[in-house]
Amino acid sequence: MIIIPTKLDIRSFDLEAITKLMVDFNQPKFRAQQLFKWLQSGVDSFDEMTNIPAALRQQLNDTCYIATVKALRKYVSQIDGTVKYVYELYDGELIESVLMKYEHGYTVCISTQVGCRMGCKFCASGLYGLTRNLTASEMLAQITYAARDNNIRISNVVMMGMGEPLDNFDNSIQFLKLVSDENGLNIGLRHISLSTSGVVSGIKKLSAYNLPITLSISLHAPNDEIRNRTMPVNKKWNIDALLSACREYQKVTTRRISFEYALIEGVNDSDANARELAARLKGIMCHVNLIPANPVKENTFKKPDRKSIIAFQKKLESLGINATIRRTLGADIDASCGQLKKKTKEEIDNANIC
Ligand code: SAH
Ligand code: SF4
Description:
Elements: E1 8-9, H1 15-24, H2 30-41, H3 54-63, E2 64-65, E3 70-76, E4 83-88, E5 94-102, E6 105-109, E7 113-115, E8 130-133, H4 136-150, E9 154-159, H5 169-179, E10 192-196, H6 200-209, E11 214-218, H7 224-230, H8 233-236, H9 239-253, E12 257-263, H10 271-281, E13 286-292, H11 306-318, E14 323-325, H12 339-353
Parallel strand pairs: 1-2, 6-9, 9-10, 10-11, 11-12, 12-13, 13-14
Antiparallel strand pairs: 3-4, 4-5, 5-6, 7-8
Helix pairs in contact: 1-2, 4-5, 6-9, 10-11
The structure holds S-adenosyl-L-homocysteine and iron/sulfur cluster.
Iron/sulfur cluster binds near residues 118, 119, 125, 197 and 218.
């Protein structure tokens, strides 16, 4: 059933806002902390909040709703335990999330939008444009669901699922505030990465917040000619504009920047491309993440063979650029960003037709 919320989205409220609400409800201030904790614990209804008096629970039910995600699909890798979820939102829209286990703990990769309007040619998330932004609470719910479902504590978050977080700026910032609050999930900002395709206006805005998160830039090309072909955002903000915003960002935050570089055979993987990339990144304290491009049904992009990927990495290193090849997790449930949602949507549509 589809429920359209007309009530207050209380899971998007920070502690300050909940405190104000409790004052309005003539409640003692300590209720705010109790309520905030519950909302970050992943409970889906006010009735589960056992230390909240019944009358207040009723009042909350009447005025507020708790944003949740519902797992429509769950794929568990038999190789490394990676879990990929396809979640349904209150309005029937679908998003993806991934839970990964590393030596240092569990990481959740969250979506920030339903779809994406940036239109990168190699990405399945952008195939149908943007449907809507996620609320901060819907971002948070992806983490609380994974934590509860697997009975674990999440220590790291990457905003690298479906959507462009800087195209949903205010909700992304509010999410960062909520998830790092020590009264709730308490995931330190140093353990959170935000990935952007290069929305320069957003990078500039973000630098004013001076957050100790890791900024990750999806560069994927060493020059404008290649980047224009694969990433339409480059026509608005070219590589010079993007890297200049990165330099400014680094001046303010003093944080190392991460550059994502999906290697596509015959497009951006040559020795000359590596040299050009190294030259462009000179002077930026950074790390390059090399990702073998994930083939998407709708395009013809292929990943280079292992030997070429290693050669690209070695070339960057020899030119003084720190580079690693991203480990592939969940290879047996292989589906790059946006593909699982698409597959699930097609299954549902087919079921509805039959
Ligand atoms: N919109 C943001 C964050 C989500 S995309 C961004 O673009 O940065 C997360 C990462 O997956 C980005 O680096 C994106 O470029 C990459 N990506 C998308 N499709 C891919 C594919 N088919 N193969 C490899 N990486 C891909
Ligand atoms: Fe959007 Fe990122 Fe996919 Fe580009 S790569 S279409 S910005 S989700």
